[in-house]
What does this fold into?
Amino acid sequence: MTRFQKFSSVLMLRLAFQSLGVVFGDLGTSPLYVFYNAFPHGVNDDEDVIGALSLIIYTLTLIPLVKYVFVVLRANDNGQGGTLALYSLLCRHAKISTIPNQHKTDEDLTTYSRQTYEENSLAAKIKRWLETRAYKRNCLLILVLLGTCTAIGDGILTPAISVLSASGGIKVQNPNMSTDIVVLVAVIILIGVFSMQHFGTDKVGWLFAPIVLIWFILIGSVGALNIHKHGSSVLKAYNPVYIYRYFRRNGNSSNTWTVLGGIMLSITGTEALFADLCHFPVLAIQIAFTFIVFPCLLLAYTGQAAYIISNKQHVNDAFYRSIPDAIYWPAFVIATAAAIIASQATISATYSIIKQALALGCFPRVKVVHTSKKFLGQIYIPDINWLLLILCIAVTAGFKNQSQIGNAYGTAVVIVMLVTTFLMVPIMLLVWKSHWILVVTFIVLSLMVELPYFWACILKIDQGGWVPLVIAIAFFIIMYVWHYCTVKRYEFEMHSKVSMAWILGLGPSLGLVRVPGIGFVYTELASGVPHIFSHFITNLPAIHSVVVFVCVKYLPVYTVPVEERFLVRRIGPKNFHIFRCIARYGYKDLHKKDDDFEKMLFDCLTLFIRLESMMDGYSDSDEFSLPEQRTEGSINTAFLADKTVNTMCSNGDLSYSSQDSIVPVQSPLGVNNLLTYSSQTNRTVSNEVEFLNRCRDAGVVHILGNTIVRARRDSGIIKKISVDYLYAFMRRICRENSVMFNIPHESLLNVGQIYYI
It folds into this structure.
């Protein structure tokens, strides 16, 4: 579904129905708490309710409908949404990645789509401007991490406010019930929600869509009933002039900003709508929102406003009070189920965000479990799950009321929306090549709505709005420190890599004892010989008969097809028996899903040797190149500056790609000698494959580099705390590389070295 496919009308309608349960749960439960947070001190004037309703109507129209459903959703990365997906999309169109481990061959991937620009176009100028200075790339990364960390805060606050608001329905029918009992019920429901996560959304997802559809029908019907029962005069709120009259009457008072902060909650879940995009086509989400979600929400808010005008004393629990007594308890059950589903959607989005951050080198290594064989995006992260549960319980039990949690929730939502707005500017210029007038129109309309809400939420920092800021700052420090040290480790590897001339000078035996076996040396370098190799052979003067440098790297794409995942190259002459294998993954791919990674490496290596029989040459990507033979057409010899072999291990198909130019020259081989040459080549290949099999039978050892990063003695106190304590602590508690790569413990060898930054 993440690919651009053609769907039949019936299938599209079915997907639109299914999207209700996964995408719109959070947005659909907002009527539970919006008016309560907009008027925490009660309502005195009918015109205030009309003005607030008019603000809700046009906020829903401009932000979720116009901005997200019809604009931002189009900025998906092959079906993937969220701030990190936008960042990956930008990284493919401009060289702004802070870890420069990409190669020209990566651009040949079928999922690596990018645009080309004319030299003097506005897009080309913006691209050059972004690439010129490192501080611009760092500012963009900080902006992305800020949006990401705040979105994680949404994953904590959404379950808290949704479940607590739904549980509050118990107290409406039992006014004497203690608030602590309501909180206890909410905590029990939260524990149940997070305890079910390991089953995966595919196990219980088939229940979600019918429940949410019933929920939308319920709130829409109750809203229409209240409009009919309490008078249709409330419909005048659809005239935007009442927004102007509201601000003219109330001015810049604190009550005005309080109302705006509460109305902000009417669009909560909009960013989760974008983050959960990976499950459904854009058109399915557009159909569901336009024809079901949007009309039902308008009816629900309009009906509540009509009820509040007639019953101003019930503004604190207007949603449950407006429900007819005959269907109260069924409505309460459906509301609780909808709140749970809303929590599920945001929790799943948080897992996806963490997985993307992990792939981009911005989060410590954690265990990621795929819960579905059908949907790649459905994952479960145990460590994050229990952390979210603890924080959710702390927020729910700590505040005990919807008002303060609502203030915190609004702050988190508006910050993520602002980040998305700013990221859309380079997306529209570089990816879409939009005219600058359209870009200015988009950002002016978005900021015109979002900035007042942002200021309203900032004014509530002391009333609970500080919670998402603290959460965002904590996660930001973790992610930025981890990314900073990861970049420094990579720079150390780059600057200290061994030259090819040194390797060639050692001779075929590398000046060592070549013992039978295969040594897989893991490195972050996609080219060159890593420093860990020289460090290893300097301290232990023996190495395996076959050495393979393995680089596992993540690219700014959502997935790398299995048939394009591995690149194999030879380093040095054939009698050196040194190779490089690059395993490429997207931010949605899971490394451990390759059940037998060692077998896949060996199969790709064998295929490379057989493939190389058609070319009697060898070269490395950067340092080494020699003439190669080609038996095609008139039999020419080609000089390749870079030879890359892309092997498909799943079914044995092979594809070739070569970078830079190929200059043909006349081959010294004659046609009469071709059969003799082919026979000799086949024998050589058979011998090398047989040699490789013998080495594998002798034993395989995985050599992992363990580079310890420490701050220099003359570093500042902040840097020392960040590197020597925070980063070191995260390294100790996160998963080891050997576990991430699924390496058998009995064949693992760690080589340590210390790097001072």
Summary: Residues 19-115+134-482 form a domain with the Amino acid/polyamine transporter I fold (CATH 1.20.1740.10). Residues 1-5, 617-677 have pLDDT under 50 and may be disordered.
